[in-house]
Amino acid sequence: MAEIVVIGAGIVGLSAAYHLVLDGHRITVVDRDPTGDKASLGNAGGIGISEIVPASAPGVLWRVPGWLFDPLGPLSLKLSHLPVLLPWLWRFVRSGTTAETERVTMALATLARPCYDDLVPMLETIGLSGDLHRVGALSVYETTKGFLRDRAEWELKRRFGVVCEEMSGEEARECEPALGPIVQHAISIPEWAHVSDPRAILDRLRQWLSQRGVGVERGEVVAIEGTAVRTREGGSWPFDALVVAAGAWSGQIAKLIGDRALVESERGYNTTLPDPQVELRGEVIFTERNFVATPLAMGLRIGGAAEFAGLETPPNFARAKSLVALAKRYFPRLNPHGGTEWMGHRPTTPDTLPVIGRSSKRRNIFYAFGHGHTGLTFGPTTGRLIAELVTGRGSSLDLAPFAISRFG
Ligand SMILES: Cc1cc2nc3c(=O)[nH]c(=O)nc-3n(C[C@H](O)[C@H](O)[C@H](O)COP(=O)(O)OP(=O)(O)OC[C@H]3O[C@@H](n4cnc5c(N)ncnc54)[C@H](O)[C@@H]3O)c2cc1C
Question: Is residue 46 a contact partner of residue 403, using CB atoms and an 8 Å limit?
């Protein structure tokens, strides 16, 4: 039995702690705000099993200028953040080749394959199996041009095992009657799922861990001194093994250890409408506009956007409002009033691959971060993979594509 410290009480850190407890270790989770707001708490709740093609896929770069010049478009960049972002952007551009896209898609497909094998038992164990809705999702298109443009990407996904089927606008409305006539085409993704409430999963995981003697401690980690983490508040936790799962802040911690990680906050927004007057069976993805609508327990959550403005800039909720206005075009009967707005930091790498594996400097330090848009989807599997490494069982998956050493 080893003494293990996990930094970060988001879905990735708690999933790692969960698997490490099952392996019989003694765990302490340290987070500067264990129960507070974080990406894992307010995300769209989608189990995005088909999200395996990198964001930098060929063709995307040509669309970036148009997105940037649209003040409320899906992508925005704070100019003063540009110097910090440049190495990340350079790597993003370099990832946009056909060969890289193929390589990354293959790696993400291997991570996606065991997704439900890891998620379902974990939800069962914490008493939330009823919160997983395996009802599929629809990716909808308002133009034939957009639909045809994405065909190659869907073909690539199919080659790597994603089940998806083209539909007409009429067929999409038969599945989701709330959709208006704007929808011309759709892709049905039957293996997609959504959860009732991402926050409930975190709350139950923390509770389950506490009942098994795991300390979930408050503290902001500012130093790694030998085999102990030290917090700003003066706390110190010794470890035999350390897991870094600090989301968008993980690059700062990797730096303390001497590793380089290109991970940025890709800020996303959403609005949860408590009385949307629209009923959805499953999640709807507005692919040409880069946002989604998910029917959660507390209402309809409409979210998306990718804003690169660092970790400290205050939120610009005009982005959340613009997504609700766009959603109204797709759902004519949507009641857009009374929503709660939210912003979260997606931990995003330039090649879309998370970092899962051992530090290149210290054999007893492990990384689990950088899941971007799919941390809820791939978090439970990442937790198991980390436990395999820490416990020394040998990994059930080739982790080479996820190594931190790829950043030099
Ligand atoms: C708008 C939006 C919608 C999304 N929708 C989906 C979706 O539908 N499906 C999906 O799979 N994913 C989705 N995501 C992505 C998903 O939410 C993230 O990938 C995931 O939550 C990341 O989890 P994490 O545990 O790595 O990080 P986080 O949840 O950010 O947790 C990191 C934790 O580390 C702590 N921490 C950081 N630094 C320190 C430090 N120095 N000391 C101590 N603690 C520290 C923080 O306090 C935080 O609690 C969405 C994200 C956003 C923003």
Answer: no
Measured in angstroms, how far is the CA atom of residue 380 from the centroid of ligand 1? 13
Contact predicate 118/383, CB 8 Å: yes
Ligand 1 pocket test target in 249, 290, 307, 308 with most atoms within 8 Å of CB: 249
Shortest-distance atom of ligand 1 to CA 303: 1
Is 105 touching ligand 1 by the criterion CB < 6 Å? no
7 lines ligand 1 (CB under 6 A): yes
Q: In what order do the strands lie in the sheet with 241-244?
A: 215-218, 26-31, 3-7, 241-244, 365-369, 355-358
**Spatial contact of 299 and 287, defined as CB atoms under 8 Å apart:** no
Q: Kindly report, residue by residue over 120-129, the tens digit of the pLDDT.
A: 999 999 999 9
DSSP of 301-357, one letter per residue? EEEEEEEE-TTTSPP-THHHHHHHHHHHHH-TT----S-EEEEEEEEE-TTSPPEEE
Ligand 1, atom nearest to 33 Cα:
47
Any bridge partners for residue 215, and if so which?
Answer: 28
357 Cα to the center of ligand 1, angstroms: 18
Instruction: Name the residue at shortest CA distance from atom 31 of ligand 1.
Output: 10
Distances (CA, A) of 63 to 73, 88, 106, 152, 230: 11, 18, 24, 16, 44
pLDDT in tens, 282-329: 999 999 999 999 999 999 999 999 999 999 999 999 999 999 999 999
Please return the burial class of 388, using the count of CB atoms within 10 Å of its CB with bins 0-12, 13-18 and 19+.
Answer: middle
- Cα separations (Å) of 158 from 51, 148, 155, 237, 361? 12, 15, 5, 46, 38
Amino acid in the structure at residue 306: A
Residues facing 46 on adjacent strands: 194
Element (H, E) at 387: helix 375-391
Nearest alpha carbon to residue 166 among 182, 179, 177, 153:
153
d(CA 104, CA 102): 6
Any ligand 1 atom below 6 A from CB of 220:
yes
pLDDT of residue 72: 67
Q: Pick 53-77+130-193+264-348's CATH classification: 3.30.70.890, 1.20.1050.10, 3.30.9.10, 3.30.230.10.
A: 3.30.9.10
37 within ligand 1 shell (Cβ under 6 A): no
**Which amino acid would we find at residue 132?**
L
